[in-house]
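Extended Data, panel c. Modelled sequence:
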Amino acid sequence: MAHEQWRHIVLERPPAAIAYTTRPTRGAKPRIPPRDRQHHSQFLIKKFEEAWQKANSERAVFHADRHGVYVEFQSDPDFDLSIRKLEEFRTRRVRLLNVRTEVSESEDPVTGETVGKVTTFATVFVANDMRNYFLDRLEAFAEKETPTGKPSQWELVQSIGDIRKALRVESFWTDDKALIPKEEPEWCEIWLSSDSKEVVSRFEKLLEEEGIESRKGTISFPERAVKVVRATRIQLERLSARSDDIAEYRLAKTTASFLTEMDNAGQAEWVEDLLSRLYVQPDAQTSVCLLDTGVNNGHPLLAPALADEDCHSVDPAWGVEDHDKHGTLMAGVACYGNLKSCVTGREPVIVQHRLESSKILPPPPNENHPDLWGFITAQGVYLVEISRPERRRALCMPVTAADNRDRGRPTSWSGKIDQLASGSDDDDSKRRLFILSAGNISSLSDAITYPEAQVTDSIHDPGQSWNALTVGAYTEYDQIVSKEYAGYSPVAPREGLSPYSTTSNIWENKWPNKPDIVMEGGNLGRGPGDFPSEIEDLSVLSTYYRPVESHFWPFYMTSAAAAQAAWFAAQLQSGYPNLWPETIRALMVHSANWTDTMKEQFLQGSTGRTDYAKLLRICGYGVPDLNAALFSASNSLTLISEVELQPFDRKEKGSGYRTRDMHLYDLPWPKDALLALDPTTPVSMRVTLSYFIEPGPGEIGWKDRYRYASYGLRFRVKAPTETSGEFLRSINAAAQQESDEDGSSHATSKNWVIGPTGRNRGSIHSDIWEGSAADLAESNVIGIYPVIGWWRERAHLGKWASRTRYSLVVSITTPEETVDLYTPVATELGIAVEVPVGF
């Protein structure tokens, strides 16, 4: 039975804002070994003095005019180093620069098994005039006590296992140590300890003096600035010896190659027929901007949607044309969605959005050149915004790093995208919707071990971006009809994960769930000897950059999936022009579902929350449904709320900062309609919470996720049996456990499919409640509450009083086709329900 369809209900009335009452917390108790106070104090004083003397000798060798020294602090294996206490010295000219961990393997004397022990290292800059101050702290540990009877400075000093002069490269290298440059120069990111113009200028002058090549531009984050330089190990050592401003080194990123030889996929008459049925809205204020290799808008199917003035290039010398074909392939899908259906159909085709192109990849011979990709991406974005500031756009970038070594850890590239999305570089005045490809499996030959290879191959940088919508790939293509490939079989089953896709299954739990969604990315064929082959029958159809040779070309991988997601986003932005980018992202995730094949592949009959959390790490939230994202139905009601909230504030009494506000929704609810159903009727509710964090991606913050994200938000739904007081106390308890960082979660309703432990990662959280109609009728109260982040923990940056915003999307659905959930809610809110939306 077909259901009438209406626009979703956007709530105009704000939720109730109530004061937050979580009790003060200092976080989880650190693991600190017992010490003999006298012996340990003397030991550390001796080690600190030795480090200082060696640093002074180094300064003499390099004739460095330095204002301090670099010292490295080390924990005992499997014990904590008090990073929090090291950070507290910041105002006394002692700067924590980076935190690293190393795993050493040894044999367990009892079991004989090989075990790994984790040691934490912290590199710290100590100003010259702070030497005695620091020594006083070490002496106080042995000689003084706090009012509670503990040794003075006990948490810091007792946590330190050793002190040494910082190594000139290793103490700053936060990437894989095997990637440290040797005799041949490598492109490296240098993260400076301040984002001030004075520090950047001073460092750029030092690069000139040392004759070190650097790339154009700088990325700035709170307390960090990033430059890309081409240096040998010896040159990095000299920089460490001469500069007071180094925080960390990493290997710079190179982009992946997108070139794949493909056969002709179409005929010119298809184009003529489609053009006769095509209408492109000429004054559309919605666009998809492609950050790629440029686009050939001379293609007859792209010319109506992509004007010459909307084609840009980060470097004018590159030209705006597509030198590679990848950008034009992206454009065909971003413009038409399923181009094959448009070409082979007979219905009118209406395009309600425009295309824009911003070329961020240079033509040969500079292709795949390591660079400061965050800076280049930002320049590409600014070009289109300056040209067309009035447009609502989805920024679609299929460009990813060639490696996947980050495994969820933020980088300068993903951090810049988070910064651009949040608008934090624009005085919070602008939010941006980014759509990124997840990146493809590292080696096509490995794809044949499907799905094991995909499950263990990590999403590529910058796909770990918290604020971007990261798109992986699934496939519906499983039919091979070409005689050339007779005897071949598809690698992936229909509606299963695409063989090209990557996942976040091997990431640490503190990093976001990625991908967010999956879209069609094509399949591979399995041929003789199990060798994988790209086959036209298993590909997406798109436009070719040289239409004089061919108008159409097959398109594969997560790039094709990202282009489809951008088209999808444009449909939502056209249909709901006033909704925030956070809400568009939320609706795409909210409408997504896992296919039966995905569940069979990765749940394998299990239905526990841990199993669903793993499925989420592999397939995201599944495949989005455009109809569900656009419309409510009589038996499927969707409510949308867009509001602001201030997460933190200064304590009214005493020093320090506190969590400030939470929001309480008493949602308009079709209780009577639900209660009229058989009490045992299965119904579902879906809740999606979407917000954009401001990044603070210095390595200091990567011990826990709270230091990267400016804040976090969580949702909680009142259980049918809970009183209002019990519900508020349960929110406080849940927030308390998050603050304690113990990885657990407060006991919550068993009705949730994923549960808070699995869903509370990143900056978009979605889950499905399944239960009876009677229980859902009493579950219309939702709390939105903040959890800690660097806005509060690093209050000296002055963001503790900042306001933020979020989008909440709530849907309730019943399989009962005669029930009307929409009308009673619309009537209560004074919304006229007249003519339903056409199908």
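The first helix runs from residue 37 to 62. This feature is highlighted in the accompanying rendering.
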